[in-house]
Amino acid sequence: MQRGANDFLGTIGETIARNRPYIERARRFGALGLAPLGVLAAACGTIFVPLPWNVLLGVLVFGAAFVVHRMHEANRKIFVARQVAHGLLAIAEDCLKLLSLEGRIMCISEVGGQLIEADHADDLIGVDWLALWDGPDARRAFERAKAGESTSFSGACRTMNGTLKWWTSTFAPVYGEHGRVSAVLCKSRDITAERNLIDELRGNARVQKDMEDHVDAVFWTATRDFRELLHVSSAFERMWEMPMSALEADQTAWSQSVHPEDLPALRDEMRTAVNTGAATQSYFRLCLQHDRTRWVRADIYPVIEDGAVSRVVSVCVDATDERERLQELHRLANTDSLTGLANRNAMMDALVKRCEALAPFAYLFIDIDRFKSINDTAGHIAGDAVLRTIARRIAETLPDGAVAARPGGDEFTVILPGSFDQESIERACRKLSLACHRPIEIDCKSVTMTCSIGVALYPEHGRTPEALFISADMAMYAAKRAGRNTFRVFGDREKDDLARAHLEAQLHGAIREKEFVLHYQPQYRVDSGALVGVEALLRWNHPQLGLLGPGAFVPVLEESALIVEAGHWVIREAVQAGSQLALALPQACSVALNVSPKQFRDPRLVSVLRHAIRRAGIDSNRITLEITESALIDNVDDAQVVLSNVRAMGVRIAIDDFGTGYSSLSYLARFRPDVLKLDKSFVDNIATDAMVRTVVEGVIDLAHKLGVTVVAEGVETQEQLDTLRDVRCDKVQGFLLSRPVLLASLMMRTDAEDAATVR
Length: 759
Hints:
Number of helices: 29
Number of domains: 5
CATH class of the largest domain: Alpha Beta
Radius of gyration: 59 Å
Structural class: alpha+beta
Distance between the termini: 175 Å
CATH architecture of the largest domain: Alpha-Beta Barrel
Shape: elongated
Strand content: 15-25%
């Protein structure tokens, strides 16, 4: 039995000897103590020998089981530690390496292998890592880590492919048995991109400094509230002529040199840039020593970050030469090259400012009388000399604050500030007239000139530059009409002329916008009261004044060429209305329309009339042209040709306003009209004046003998109508019977209603 126990102990001993490496490894990692095994060994050697073999066997079995359990626990912890280490190496973004005490790579992370550009991380095992570096920095840091110190350094080394990279490396000592450093852990980060960026920024900063030192522009950066200057370039000292130390001591020192008149506008532009997020520009003056001034142009740029202005950058350049050139260009653009006075543009600008100021002033228009004779007899050089002399005299005559200009030709204009009555205006104009009238010596000849002056007062004669210019110009022409060498203030006659000119301008728009309309005044037979025709009368549907009769605008039409264009429109509209009237009221046999003298002389009259008749599809004998005596006798031969062409179309001819002109009764036989229209001046007195009645009766008898129909116009009383019936007048028209109405209203009338109205 004793021998069997010894054999078993031998077996246990062999087992312990066979597993001793595991026991030693567990002890090194601190996972298993050796006390139980010592106890077991001691027991095997001495204490447990005398014990009974069964007790000893139990102790040995227990001890063996305990040892095996502790070895399994140690292996499990080692496995977990290895997995954790492997995971950390896999996710690390830096190059992780374990270096031996000789500096060789024992293991390296996969990322590290990629950063060093190795095909496989395992290829780097055993590589002398310290040999990859140039210089002593890597080895010094490594030696300090071997000595137990955590260190770091930065440097450059080449990868396996020869690429030069910059790294920052950190060393940590790894402790082994007995607390001694057994290896060095190294973490290296690739900082090549950062290093290149730093080099680039350094280069940019160097370039920026070189530029700031050699460029005259001032670059500055400020916070968005402008309370702090973040950067100011060195050119500030040259432009502001102020040391940078003064700006460092007081950041508002720059503004103290800005001209007081310009500083508010500059600050407004700076605030605008911040508030709008858009670049702005401002010009201001710097007040320098010795009463010198320097113009500066500031371009202000807001810097936007995260949707908001974070700071403001500005570039200031010397704009003195630029402003001087602009001022010279402005002077040239606003100065009359011949006389040196202001030109038309400058005068209009001055008028605008005066009108905006709302202060009274006088505007004078001066025209040199008979100046054309100087150019024609003495030449343009002499004429220019006269203009220069008069311009100088006008400028010398004017008080302070006045402005003189030469708009062109031989015309001058003057602004005289202040209020003026008739006496003060007369005094001012007399001084100007005397200055112009003094003899002028030209090429040993003495020339004496006079001038006509027109005066317009603000605001009485106009509140705008254009209105004042027109008023003064019209007053000047009034002075011309008064015999020249005098002055006129814009008055009632000029107001009427101005109103007519304004009306003419409006009439152009009336034709373009189709504001004209036709009203039709019915004509009735005297004997039966039947509606037999109408006369087309022009009206103007004014957009502001409403419906205007012909007396308000036809005279202006007749004085201008517009009467011809308007007359053509009347022909087309009236002929078309005659076609509609013929269908609605067959007994209304004619539509009469007036033709002005200018229209009668227009060569297009016949063709326009013919085209209108064809387009309307109306019988031409339903159309009557009413022509005044004056239009016929101005040129009898031409008038006869026109009448022949009109009559050849079948259109009837009426002589309008008969008895008011100077024609002879012989013209009735020569022109052979179809209708005579007695003027209203005869009709007005026909019931009360026997002589007028006799004349009218004689005209009607003569007309009937010539086969001419007589129409009396302007019938307003029953007595007039009765008298006209007694003298056998054929047709009548007037307010007694009907006012002019629109075509639609006329066609709604019945024959019975018309007859009842006449009776």
